[in-house]
Amino acid sequence: MNIVVMAGDDIGPEIVAAALAVVRAADAEFSLGLRCTDVEVGMASHRKHGTTLTDPALQAAIDADGVIVGPCGMTDYPPLDEGGINIPGTIRKRLDLYANLRPARSRAGMPDARRGLDVLIVRENTEGFYSDRTMHQGSGEFMPTADVALSVRKITREGSRRIARIAFDYAARRSKRITAVGKRHVLQMTDGLFMGEACAEAGAHPDITLKEMDIDAMAADLYSRPERHDVILITNMFGDILSNLAVALSGGLGLAAALNAGDNHAIANAGHGSAPDIAGKGIANPAGMILSAAMLLEWLGLRHGKPAFVQAHRAIEAAVDVALADANARTADLGGRGNTRTFADAVVRQLRNEKLQAVAAG
Ligand code: ATP
């Protein structure tokens, strides 16, 4: 299995190195047969080649079985015509990664986490209110007069259908509950279409419960009654906002994990930014990046029918739980005394024990 590794910018190289140490340990413990290849992107690539994403780098992502991408410092990139390419955005578009999967769970050692939180946000990744990038030609945001500004929200039947299918796939392996989130009584046509496709998919899964909820009520519930929800199916921009709330409620941004997946490709990239303020200090929390890489292993396992990959995911999750509970291992953003290295070491150490537990748990 070929994995392309793009370190990104700022804290990217530090947390990707930590994630890679964990992936390599999982590879050894579970005999995954991974071949990881570093591909330079970001400002390091720009300095050498005049672009943050060269054509061969993009091709390497296309050819890989899976990609791990560290956070990229896009705000510091030069303009597009000077080579400042949005790396994850370009790869997402090129590989049609229409599902953004964002888990959030309360874990031991996270005193600020909401008890009972354990959700997987399944966010549509290609449409919605991102009016600047969803049109075939031109922008979906425009000003018909000097005093009127309009934004167009794009929802398609096919986009809604395929993301609903992903939500049901994941719900089937979790607690068989989906909350579909929108604001249908206001956005009657767009959310109507989105919810309609979710309901149609529900017809094929009588064992899975689907309920609908308004985004405002969902935000409150996530805070006060998170245990009511498991898989959350949601449109693009609502999903962006809700997933940041969910990860904050799980204990902090450093825990933010994300997988961008399509039918044939997936990339793991942490759900937080490149944190330039703490870059190079060795203190960044690698948990989100590690968990993202683990999600990629699970996706590969499910796609290729390789149970060892799914077990590796489970074992990494369990090992991260143990490392997070240890104040000497976890990083300062979570109130710990550890750093990027101590955390990764703790996860690797634990992985060897977790492997046995995961195998035993089947
Ligand atoms: P972007 O615009 O790239 O999405 P952002 O504005 O959301 O980025 P981040 O880079 O995610 O900002 O950082 C926000 C704050 O959270 C910063 O203070 C940063 O140091 C902190 N932070 C983000 N990720 C981590 C991490 N992995 N470990 C520790 N602190 C982090």
Explained architecture:
Helices cover 44% and strands 16% of the residues. It is α/β, with parallel strands linked by helices and 362 residues long. The strands form two sheets. A ten-stranded mixed sheet has the order 2-1-3-12-11-4-5-10-8-9, sandwiched between helices. The protein has a two-stranded antiparallel sheet with strand order 6-7. Helix 7 (215-224) runs parallel beside helix 8 (236-250) and helix 10 (307-325) packs across helix 11. Bound molecules: adenosine-5'-triphosphate (ATP). Adenosine-5'-triphosphate binds at residues 15, 253-254, 272-275, 277-278, 284-285, 288, 333.
Beginning-to-end CA distance, first to last residue: 23 Å
Strand neighbour order, sheet with most strands: 2-1-3-12-11-4-5-10-8-9
Radius of gyration in whole Å, from Cα?
20 Å
Q: What are the bound molecules?
A: adenosine-5'-triphosphate
Helix tally? 11
Assess the beta-strand content as a share of residues: 15-25%
Average pLDDT works out at 95
Q: Ranges with pLDDT <50 over ≥5 residues?
A: none
| Element order: H for helix, E for strand | EHEHHEHEEEEHEHEHEHEEHHH
Shape: globular
Q: Which structural class is indicated by helix and strand composition?
A: alpha/beta
The largest sheet is: 10 strands, mixed
Q: How many runs of DSSP E, i.e. beta strands?
A: 12
Helix content: 40-55%
Layout of helices and strands, plus pairs?
Blueprint (H helix, E strand, L loop, with lengths): L1 E5 L5 H19 L4 E4 L3 H8 L5 H9 L2 E4 L17 H8 L4 E7 L12 E7 L16 E5 L2 E4 L5 H17 L3 E6 L7 H13 L6 E6 H10 L6 E4 L1 H15 L8 E3 L4 E3 L18 H18 L2 H19 L14 H22 L1
Parallel strand pairs: 1-2, 1-3, 3-12, 5-10, 8-9, 8-10
Antiparallel strand pairs: 4-5, 4-11, 6-7, 11-12
Helix pairs in contact: 1-9, 1-10, 1-11, 5-6, 7-8, 9-10, 10-11
